[in-house]
Specification:
- The strands form two sheets. Strands 1, 2, 3, 4, 5, 6, 7, 8, 9 and 12 form a ten-stranded mixed β-sheet that branches.
- The protein has eleven helices and twelve strands.
- The longest helix has 16 residues, at about 10-25.
- It has about 270 residues and is α/β, with parallel strands linked by helices.
- The protein has helices spanning about 10-25, 30-35, 40-50, 60-70, 80-90, 125-135, 145-155, 175-185, 195-200, 235-245, 250-255; strands at about 25-30, 55-60, 75-80, 100-110, 135-140, 170, 190-195, 205-210, 215-225, 260, 260-265, 265.
- Strand 10 (about 260) and strand 11 form a beta hairpin.
Length: about 270
């Protein structure tokens, strides 16, 4: 068998091309709601066409996304648990955090509304009523941004749902879509971000029962992973992506994404 040899100049060109290709690719550690809603399918082709940078998304719960980024398994973090995001930057894992967009959380439930919470705008009052009556509630229980928010709302309501774990309080340990499916299957109330609910196909007789409380505000942030903590991070491309998301073009693209004629995310990055 004969092998064709190549010159040093050709080899250098090939290696440079491989390095360029690698430089044009980043990994985003992301919350599931932005992926499940279809937002990335809308945004990323626009970004890649403008910059040539390919974005690969790892969609997991916020807690896991943060751990992955801390372990240098990503170039950008895009999640929705602001205190945890700020702690991530403070610990030196991220360069800076910027508000990106928002929507809100809602509690969905069956049409029969066994807890009698439909139409309530007081989320703590609704949760207290669900707990008092022992009505089934399905929680993600996965340290995601949604789960973190749910836990804080239970605390504000003066309820320890762990006391009802395995009884009326069911923890799925799963993502939002799987938890909605499980909750609907057992007739339980579920807290979800509105974008996932709008995009969710298996609603059956479920509707939004509780919404409109300012405590259900859902803020998303974007953070480039620090090259000082993770020397392998593609810092330049990561910053390009973060800058584009908060730019006029990126914010307009976020606002333009709709499902069933409903806007899913509302851009609110600081003016650049």
């Amino acid at each position: 068998m004969q092998f064709k040899t190549i010159g040093a100049a050709t080899l250098a060109t090939l290696l440079a091309g491989a390095a360029w290709a690698q430089d044009q690719s980043i990994i985003v550690q992301s919350t599931t709601s932005t992926a499940n809603s279809g937002l990335y399918d809308h945004l990323l082709p626009i970004f890649q066409e403008e910059t040539g940078i390919q974005v690969n998304v790892v969609a997991v719960g916020t807690g896991q996304a943060i751990k992955n980024a801390e372990n240098c398994d990503g170039d950008v973090l895009l999640v929705h648990a602001k205190p945890s995001e700020e702690a991530f930057v403070e610990a030196g894992y991220g360069t800076s955090r910027t508000d990106l967009m928002y929507n809100d959380f809602v509690i969905v439930g069956p049409e029969a509304d066994p807890a009698g919470v439909s139409g309530m705008t007081d989320v703590q009052g609704a949760l207290a009523r669900i707990a008092d009556q022992g009505t089934l509630f399905a929680s993600r229980g996965d340290d995601s941004g949604t789960h973190k928010k749910e836990v804080s709302l239970w605390t504000d309501a003066g309820v320890d749902p762990a006391a009802g774990s395995g009884d009326w309080y069911r923890e799925t340990g799963s993502g939002m879509g799987a938890t909605l499916n499980a909750g609907i299957g057992m007739g339980a109330y579920v807290m979800t971000d509105r974008a996932t609910w709008i995009s969710f196909d298996n609603k059956q007789d479920y509707t939004i029962a509780v919404e409109g409380d300012e405590d259900m505000f859902n803020q998303y942030g974007v953070i480039p992973v620090s090259p000082e903590h993770c020397p392998s991070v593609n810092a330049e491309a990561a910053q390009t992506f973060a800058d584009w998301l908060v730019s006029g073009a990126g914010q307009e693209a976020i606002a333009a994404y709709t499902v069933a004629d409903q806007q899913l995310f509302f851009p609110n990055a600081p003016a650049q």
